Automatic annotation (TrEMBL):
It comes from the Bacteria. Residues 5-150 form the 6-phosphogluconate dehydrogenase NADP-binding domain. The lineage of its organism: Bacteria, Bacillati, Actinomycetota, Actinomycetes, Pseudonocardiales. It comes from Kibdelosporangium phytohabitans. This is 6-phosphogluconate dehydrogenase. Residues 157-284 form the NADPH-dependent reductive aminase-like C-terminal domain. Signal peptide: none annotated. The keyword Methyltransferase does not apply.
Length: 287
């Protein structure tokens, strides 16, 4: 028979997780601060626990998915004794440092997770979750986690699921920055966004290939490898991005910050190298 699982937190994501567990046939106990949210899950076969301690006691595997880390510790601190010896899987979004702290706060076998999906995607790939922390907790419960979609265990360091999660989100938001600026630019000139969008998608997709070369340069800290358009040239051309936006009366503030970073790199004598060298400035921190 399938092992029992407890889900703490029945927001949009927690509810989707609990629903996926029920669908996969796991006896599921649920708890939420606002108990009404348990109703549809109970109708789908879940057991509602009146307190956090009751919910934690019901299963060896406890999954928590709340708003933030503050809510996680507020909730779990009320069930410290019940948690002893459990497998705790925290799927709440946070920072690597927050995850590492939580990993040692309770007497549990700890796994942290980063959910790379929105609630309606939960239940099958392409939804997937990064896991980090206890290797044995992951191996023992991998099948349960497959109810949510794909699994990707990244490290025994509990902070790495959050690191990978934030890393992918950073790439996504960077793409959003470019797309929002570009669509603002063309619509400011009267070109419908939907007319420009196919061109934008095609171009951005083609440019994705440059990530591999950047990664090689960054690992080797050698930004002179395979340079096809050096940062000196790009830094000059980048000024035109800001100027074009300003000509149209739009704010360049979303895209502007890269300009001064490139200029600094050029001023530091790296104008003949590739744009990836900007990483060296970023890694030094705020100056
Ligand atoms: P919701 O806002 O839908 O739900 C928040 C949950 O946290 C509710 O169960 C709420 O309880 C609970 N909560 C908030 N504060 C407290 C508190 N102080 N004490 C007890 N419970 C509290 O958020 P989601 O379910 O969408 O998100 C949950 C986590 O999943 C977040 O960390 C989010 O970043 C992450 N995530 C969400 C994604 C999404 O697309 N939704 C995608 C990937 C990750 P109550 O019902 O009583 O208010």
């Amino acid at each position: 028979s399938k092992p029992a699982v407890t889900v703490l937190g029945l927001g949009d994501m927690g509810s989707a997780l609990a629903r996926a567990l029920l669908k996969a046939g796991y006896p599921t106990t649920v708890w939420n601060r606002t108990p009404e949210k348990a109703k549809p899950l109970v109708e789908a076969g879940a057991t509602h626990a009146p307190t956090v301690a009751d919910a934690v006691t019901a299963s060896r595997l406890v999954i928590v998915c709340l708003l933030d880390y503050k809510s996680v510790t507020d909730v779990l601190d009320t069930a410290r004794d019940a948690l002893t010896g459990k497998v705790l899987v925290n799927l709440t979004n946070g920072t690597p440092g927050q995850a590492r702290e939580l990993a040692t706060r309770y007497d549990v076998d700890y796994l942290d997770g980063g959910i790379m999906a929105i609630p309606p995607m939960i239940g099958a790939p392409p939804a997937f979750v990064f896991y980090s922390g206890s290797r044995s907790a992951f191996d023992t419960n991998k099948q349960v986690f497959e109810a949510f979609g794909g699994t990707n265990y990244v490290s025994t360091d509990a902070g790495f699921a959050a690191l990978y999660d934030i890393g992918l989100l950073s790439g996504m938001y960077g793409m959003f920055v470019g797309a929002l600026h570009a669509l603002s630019l063309v619509t400011s000139a009267g070109v419908p966004a939907q007319e420009f969008a196919p061109l934008l998608k095609q171009y951005v997709s083609a440019m994705l290939g440059s990530i591999d070369g950047m990664a090689e340069q960054i690992d080797k800290q050698d930004y002179a490898i395979d340079v096809v358009s050096n940062i000196g040239m790009q830094s000059e051309a980048y000024v035109n991005l800001t100027l074009s936006a300003e000509e149209l009366g739009m704010s360049p503030e979303l895209l502007a910050p890269l300009g001064p970073l490139m200029a600094r790199r050029v001023a530091d004598g790296h104008g003949h190298e590739d744009i990836a060298g900007v990483v060296e400035i970023l890694k030094k921190g705020k100056k």
